[in-house]
Amino acid sequence: MSKNRQWLINDRPLGRALQHEDFKRVDSDIVEPGAGDVLVKVLYLGFDPAQKGWMENIGGYVAPTEIGDVMRGSGIGEVVASQHPAFKPGDKVVGMLCWQDYATLPGHELEAVPDDELLTANLGALGTTGMTAYFGLLRHGRPQPGDTVLVSGAAGATGSIVGQIANIAGCRTIGIAGGAEKCTWLTDEVGYDAAIDYKNDDVRQRLKALCSQSVDVFYDNVGGAILDHALAQIDMHARIVICGGISRYERGELPAGPQNYFNLIFKRASMSGFIVLDYIPEYPAAKQRMREWIANGQIRFREDLQEGFENVPATLMRLFSGMNFGKQILKLD
Ligand SMILES: NC(=O)c1ccc[n+]([C@@H]2O[C@H](COP(=O)([O-])OP(=O)(O)OC[C@H]3O[C@@H](n4cnc5c(N)ncnc54)[C@H](OP(=O)(O)O)[C@@H]3O)[C@@H](O)[C@H]2O)c1
Fold this sequence. Notes:
By secondary structure, this protein is α/β, with parallel strands linked by helices. It has helices at residues 50-56, 128-141, 157-168, 180-190, 203-211, 224-231, 263-266, 283-295, 312-321, and strands spanning 4-9, 23-28, 37-46, 75-82, 92-95, 102-106, 111-112, 148-152, 172-177, 194-197, 215-220, 234-242, 270-273, 303-307, 327-331. The model has no long low-confidence stretch (mean pLDDT 97).
């Protein structure tokens, strides 16, 4: 059998942007599966901003990483050999396959997925990304028909699904994203009622014009100044959902707290954070619902497919410059 190409964690990118030297490329032997294990050939990798935080051991909600570990990341693969009764060669699976050609891991850490036209969606709309949009919005945002739902990072993998679930819930939706192309996509194809281009528009003025004091739900993927501007426009009993804060992920010093947080008092509003992993027991029902929405055209998604093992680190970096358009995926060669 061939060698196992791997990317290892070589440094911790704390307080700075990722760089190529943060990863080390090695060849190692493929690990034969022991009792209960499955050997998987990795076909696709999915990329999430959180992977940078995992390298930094920030947050404490996942097991710590060590320098020299194979870089952690979700993937879709095909079973090559199995010592687990639930899997047989040829099955397609999703799991934390990491940045390598072959993953050997316990069968209970894998999920079998249908080998259909939605295969790669198991890394996006039907995977953790879709679950983040679903539980973050429905459990924390609690949208009601007629609400105005504002979303930052709206053209991203998570944000684009959030807007569509809010539309299904009967809400008016406003998305904030970087660049005219992404904003046009939001209004013309995703179904957002309006979009704000934070790279070219005056966000404060545009928010005032579109939703002055009338934001019922703010689903925030970005933090920083955008969170502050959004807090200035909330309505009574608004719900602020803190999903992520990508504007701070490359910064050495913490940004100043939002000046407009006192609006939470005046508007009797609430702000809550969440980690999607807490909802794992409820994933099956939510995924079934997402499948139905995708099948009947209520949820659309876009995938940004890169290729090639050598391009894996650079593909993660695309998320932090907004180069990705839709769920960032890479097909291994
Ligand atoms: N709480 C949870 O359990 C959980 C789970 C998964 C993900 N998340 C969070 O959800 C958010 C979205 O993740 P995703 O996987 O869907 O990624 P994504 O939105 O597909 O990709 C990241 C996007 O962030 C935007 N961005 C990058 N730097 C920015 C900056 N300085 N200011 C404003 N926007 C910036 C870029 O879009 P533009 O081109 O528009 O700038 C980029 O496309 C992240 O904050 C992530 O940490 C949270």
